[in-house]
């Protein structure tokens, strides 16, 4: 079975074939066996034929072989040896313990340091650099040597970052790490270590918690703000789900709960770019500082863990001389604290987030087992709900459409002001709605409705609805007159009112005056009829 070579050597050979290098020269340069080079040259020639340039490639190769052969015959024997350019050997004294001389060697790639470094700065990779050195610089070393040398150069030239100085009260950075092993349910587990660091003074707050959910994240912020006695203008944080629902390079989607918390405390949340911990380097280094203090320690309970952190922070962390500022942390915090924003009067009311569909029958939504009305124009639509034990807020496409106080499970909210009056099943509001409709018909209709409600109570509601509906069949005057007669009879029945209304309508038709015409071309006068009668008598 033939030996297989690395792809980088194969690509390099094909490149050298194109430049007209002979098998001998390639063998001397990269150290591959001439039979292997010959075999791959046949593959290269076959690929050139398929591209339509086989004749030209064959002539060029034969010509180059002929010239190279002649040169090889005329050249001194020393030129046929493998070049040793770039290799430096040093003879050292004999090792006294082993009795053999040591030989120190320098990488072949080191002789091309300037060229490799320049190509690396231009963005070239190790493969490309190796190919250029072999074809243009007669490099005789291996690809692995170049690869190792490039790796060393990259370590010696790390990325350059700008240092940002933050004014007092401007910024704090937050992040989670892992705390020391702590006993929980009979087993030692590592809790989450929450750390908030003021970017100016480096004053920090540390606390261990078992969860990273959004409520725990927010409550850790609150306790940190209370510890500092104020709030910074900006909070830089990671892209954990408690703060960011969807990470994005230009506009991340902030968790609604965390955004509402930021509005309540008056700070601006700024998420860092993904996989860029250096953007919040102050808290990152502070987490390592705390973890170093916790190394080798174990705690029997979470409260014991946090008690140790509070004591350690007060005794050591806050009294130390910071390595960058060269000043005591507590002293710098004393200068920064007046620049912090004041804490709000009330703590933040954490809320849950959900999605609901507005019921198509009564325009209500169910939240926590209770029912809350929503304006009817949103019937059948999906709305977002923010709720807790104190309130329920309903949003549609980010716009607040309802804000009600929370009620007990299984009840309907009493405030139905967003619903039409005729859809409000509160007795007082509903009967007032019916009275308003009757007053539009007339005073007698309103009086009839009031007396009917007083006499028949809830049973009168539908009868009053019937009186209101008569306006589609009779004029207001007839309805009023019928209601007045019903009041006189002290009978408050819908059927009686409609009978009276029909009777009044017929009466008005009978009493309507019909004006007869006395003169017409077809009507003879009484005098004419008298003359006709007298003429018949005389005849």
Task: Output the keywords.
single chain, 539 residues, alpha+beta, Nucleotidyltransferase, domain 5, 5 domains, five-stranded mixed sheet, four-stranded antiparallel sheet, 18 helices, 17 strands, 16% strand
Would you mind describing this structure in some detail?
The longest helix has 21 residues. With 539 residues, the protein is an alpha+beta fold. About 9% of the residues have low confidence. Strand 4 and strand 5 form a beta hairpin. The chain has 5 domains: 65 residues, no CATH class; 50 residues, no CATH class; 169 residues, 2-Layer Sandwich (Nucleotidyltransferase, domain 5), CATH 3.30.420.10; 68 residues, no CATH class; 84 residues, no CATH class. A 5-stranded mixed sheet has the order 7-6-3-8-11, with helices on both faces. A 4-stranded antiparallel sheet has the order 12-15-16-17, with no helix packed on it. The protein has a two-stranded antiparallel sheet with strand order 1-2.
Write the layout of secondary structure elements.
Elements: H1 7-18, H2 23-30, H3 34-50, H4 54-74, E1 89-94, E2 101-105, H5 113-121, H6 126-137, H7 143-156, E3 171-178, E4 182-184, E5 187-189, E6 192-198, E7 204-209, H8 214-228, E8 234-237, E9 244-246, E10 253-254, H9 256-265, E11 268-271, H10 281-294, H11 302-317, H12 329-336, E12 352-357, E13 364-367, E14 370-373, E15 382-387, E16 391-396, E17 399-405, H13 427-441, H14 443-456, H15 461-469, H16 476-488, H17 494-510, H18 526-538
Parallel strand pairs: 3-8, 8-11
Antiparallel strand pairs: 1-2, 3-6, 4-5, 6-7, 9-10, 12-15, 13-14, 15-16, 16-17
């Amino acid at each position: 079975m033939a030996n297989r070579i690395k792809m980088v050597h194969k690509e390099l050979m094909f490149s050298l074939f194109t430049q007209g290098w002979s098998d001998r020269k390639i063998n001397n340069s990269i150290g591959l066996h001439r039979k292997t080079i010959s075999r791959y040259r046949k593959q290269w020639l076959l690929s050139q034929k398929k591209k339509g340039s086989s004749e030209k490639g064959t002539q060029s190769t034969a010509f180059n072989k002929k010239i190279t052969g002649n040169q090889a015959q005329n050249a001194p024997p020393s030129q046929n040896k493998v070049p040793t350019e770039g290799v430096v050997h040093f003879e050292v004294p004999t090792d006294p313990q082993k009795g053999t001389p040591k030989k120190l060697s320098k990488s072949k790639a080191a002789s091309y340091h300037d060229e490799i470094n320049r190509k690396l700065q231009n963005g070239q990779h190790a493969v490309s650099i190796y190919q250029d050195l072999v074809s243009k610089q007669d490099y005789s070393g291996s690809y692995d040597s170049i690869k190792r040398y490039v790796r060393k150069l990259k370590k010696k030239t790390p990325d350059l970052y700008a240092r940002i100085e933050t004014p007092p009260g401007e910024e704090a950075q937050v992040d989670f790490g892992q705390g020391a092993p702590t006993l929980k349910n009979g087993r030692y587990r590592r809790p989450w270590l929450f750390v908030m660091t003021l970017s100016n003074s480096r004053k920090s707050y540390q606390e261990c918690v078992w969860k990273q959910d959004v409520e725990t994240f927010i409550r850790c912020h609150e306790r940190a703000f209370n510890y500092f006695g104020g709030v910074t203008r900006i909070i830089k944080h990671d892209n954990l789900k408690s703060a960011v629902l969807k990470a994005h390079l230009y506009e991340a989607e902030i968790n609604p709960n965390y955004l509402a918390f930021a509005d309540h405390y008056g700070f601006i949340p700024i998420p860092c770019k993904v996989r860029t911990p250096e953007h919040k380097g102050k808290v990152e280094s502070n987490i390592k500082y705390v973890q170093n203090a916790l190394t080798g320690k174990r705690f029997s309970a979470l409260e014991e863990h946090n008690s140790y952190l509070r004591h350690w922070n007060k005794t050591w962390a806050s009294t130390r001389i910071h390595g960058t500022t060269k000043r005591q942390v507590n002293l710098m915090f004393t200068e920064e604290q007046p620049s912090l924003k004041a804490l709000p009067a009330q703590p933040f009311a954490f809320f849950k987030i959900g999605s609901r569909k507005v019921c198509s029958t009564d325009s209500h939504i169910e939240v926590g087992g209770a029912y809350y009305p929503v304006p009817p124009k949103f019937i059948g639509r999906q709305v977002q709900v923010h709720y807790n034990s104190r309130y329920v807020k309903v949003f549609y496409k980010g716009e607040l459409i309802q804000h009600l106080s929370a009620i007990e499970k299984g009840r309907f909210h009493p405030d139905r002001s967003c619903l039409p009056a005729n859809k409000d099943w509160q007795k007082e509001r509903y009967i007032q709605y019916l009275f308003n409709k009757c007053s539009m018909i007339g005073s007698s209709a309103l009086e009839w409705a009031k007396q009917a409600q007083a006499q028949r109570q809830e049973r009168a509601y539908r009868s009053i609805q019937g009186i209101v509906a008569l306006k589609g069949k009779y004029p207001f005057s007839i309805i009023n007159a019928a209601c007045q007669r019903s009041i006189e009879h002290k009978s408050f029945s819908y059927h009686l009112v409609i009978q009276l209304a029909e009777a009044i309508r017929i009466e008005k038709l009978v009493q309507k005056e019909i004006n007869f015409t006395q003169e017409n071309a077809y009507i003879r006068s009484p005098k004419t009829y008298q003359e006709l009668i007298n003429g018949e008598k005389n005849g």
